[in-house]
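Lab notebook, design round three. We kept the backbone fixed and only want residue identities now. Task for the bench partner: fill in a sequence for the structure below.
Input structure tokens:
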């Protein structure tokens, strides 16, 4: 499928703006683990995912990571265009969690069209609002929910994304998603294992009692 089928407001753009977008697109394949955008160092452009999975995260001064949102098929990332949003005071890193095909929309072209197109401006504002909602949700989780509830919710979400209860994931990766020290994650996973909710092996967390894990989210 072509870009036109992935861009949700394509039919609301006039022919000239459509032509400008198509003429400026950059197609890219990113292997799992590739850093696509590195904070304020880059102004990569806007990323539109064709297939695959991206992760947006921030780093603490100590180098600890925490995921703020993920991007899947048809999702677009604005924070990779940091030069378009000078008022943003935190630096976001974008990495490929899986092999990913995507389009990069140059910032200058996008901004020029947005200045002339109300549908594109509205669409951009909707994405921005959605991403800030993701950030506020994350803050709420960190402030008000205990770590065991956050880990349980993360494992269930991961199982839904991957379509399996056997997750090929390390304790370090879980720690990076949740912004917690690996040792703390390991202790909590062992507790889950003792309670019969998961089974641990090298590089794998298997959910053995999803119902019990769901109840752990609600405690």
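Proposed sequence:
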């Amino acid at each position: 499928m072509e870009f036109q089928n992935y861009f949700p407001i394509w039919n609301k753009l006039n022919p000239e703006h459509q032509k400008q977008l198509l003429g400026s697109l950059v197609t890219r394949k990113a292997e799992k683990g590739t850093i696509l955008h590195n904070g304020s160092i880059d102004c990569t452009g806007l990323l539109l995912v064709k297939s695959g999975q991206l992760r947006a995260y921030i780093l603490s001064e100590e180098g600890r990571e925490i995921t703020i949102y993920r991007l899947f098929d048809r999702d677009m990332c604005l924070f990779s265009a940091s030069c378009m949003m000078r008022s943003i005071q935190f630096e976001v890193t974008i990495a490929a969690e899986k092999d990913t095909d995507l389009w990069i929309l140059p910032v200058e072209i996008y901004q020029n069209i947005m200045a002339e197109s109300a549908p594109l401006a509205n669409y951009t504002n909707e994405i921005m609002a959605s991403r800030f909602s993701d950030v506020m949700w994350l803050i709420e989780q960190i402030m008000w929910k205990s770590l065991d509830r956050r880990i349980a919710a993360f494992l269930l979400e991961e199982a839904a994304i991957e379509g399996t209860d056997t997750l090929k994931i390390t304790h370090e990766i879980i720690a990076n998603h949740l912004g917690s020290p690996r040792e703390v994650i390991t202790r909590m996973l062992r507790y889950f294992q003792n309670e019969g909710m998961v089974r641990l092996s090298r590089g794998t967390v298997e959910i053995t009692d999803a119902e019990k894990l769901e109840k752990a989210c609600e405690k």
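Keep this in mind before ordering anything: Helices lie at 3-6, 15-24, 107-116, 118-144, 147-162, 171-178, 182-194, 210-218.
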